[in-house]
Amino acid sequence: MTVKEIAKLANVSPATVSNVLNHRNNVGEETRQRILEICKENGYDINKGKNKKPAEDTNTILFNFSDYERNFYLKIIHGISDYVYSRGYDLMICTNKSCEKFMDPALTCGTIMLDMKCKNSTLIQKANEGYPIVALDRIMDVPNIKSVVVNNYAPMAELVQGLVDKGYRRFGYIAGIDTLDNQERYRALKDVLQKNGITFSRENYFLGDYYEKSGYQSARLMLLSDNIPEVLVCANDNMAIGAMKALRQEGLKIPDDIAVTGFDGTEMSELMGLTTVDIPDYERGYLAAQFLLQNIAGSCSFDTFKIAAKVHWRKTTR
C-alpha cells in the first residue's frame, strides 16, 4: 500500500495523506480520521515515524548535490538560501554519501535533490513515507516529489539550428555523463541535423564527464582525425573551455578553424566569449525552494515544472 493508493481510496490528494502521516495540523479532523482508518484497514504502518520528531517541528531544508567543482551550484545555493532564509528556515548542504542519513524528518523537513548518484528507489521510499522532495535532476511521477528541470531540448535545438543557418555542416559533440540533461541535449542535436539533411558521424561523438579536463582530452582525441568537425558542440561550458584550451595549444583559431559552443551560462563562459545556452540557476534554486515549502505545507502540485533557457551568441562562433 502506497501513499498514492491511500489517497485514491480516501478521495484526497497524496499531499493530504502525507500531511496526516507527518502529523501536520492543516487537515480537517474528519478527513484525518478517514485516512487513518484506511491505513489501518489496509495494513499500512502509520507508526513508521513514531519515535521521530515531527517534520513540522524541524525548520531545516536539505540540499543534496553531487560535487563541489561545478560553479553553477553556487548560484543555485544562493537562490535556495535567499528563499528559505526569508521564510524562517535553515539550510543544510550535503553530498550523496550522507543524503540518506539527513533525509530524515527528525533532522530535516524536506530535500532539494541534485545528485543522480542518489537512486530513484531511495527517493520513492522517502516520498512514500510522506517526506517532501523537489528533484532538480530527474522527472518522477511520484506523490511528494516535485520535479523542477531545465528544458534542455528547445534551446539546444535553437542553438544547433542557428549553427546550421550560419553554414556549419560537420558537427562534433562532447557528451556529459548519461543524465536527463545530456540525453535531451544530444537528442536535440541529432533531431535538428536530421531535419536539415545533415549526417552526424558517431566518430565525432566524444564522452566526457562535465569536467574541464574531459573536454580537453576529448578535443585532443578529435584532433587525431584527418577530418575534424567545423563546429564542436559541448554538453556544458566546462568541457567547452577545456576543448578550447586543447585546440589553441595546437595552433587552431576559434572560430576561424573550428567553432565551439557550451551549455550552462557560467561566468567563465562570458569571460571567454563562449557561445552557450544560459540557464538561470539562481532562479532555479529560488523556485525549487518555493516549491519545496509548498510541498511541506501540502499545497504543491506535483506536475513537472520546466525552466526555460536562452541561447547567447558570442565570439566562439562566426
UniProtKB/TrEMBL annotation:
UniProt-listed SUPFAM superfamilies: lambda repressor-like DNA-binding domains (SSF47413), Periplasmic binding protein-like I (SSF53822)
DNA-binding listed as a keyword: yes
Pfam families: LacI (PF00356), Peripla_BP_3 (PF13377)
Keyword Transcription appears in the UniProt entry: yes
Family annotation (InterPro entries): HTH_LacI, LacI/GalR-like_sensor, Lambda_DNA-bd_dom_sf, Peripla_BP_I
GO MF annotation terms: DNA-binding transcription factor activity; transcription cis-regulatory region binding
Top-level division of the source organism's lineage: Bacteria
Keywords attached to this entry: DNA-binding, Transcription, Transcription regulation
Chain ranges of the HTH lacI-type domain: 1-44
Cited PROSITE patterns: HTH_LACI_1, HTH_LACI_2
Protein name as catalogued: LacI family transcriptional regulator
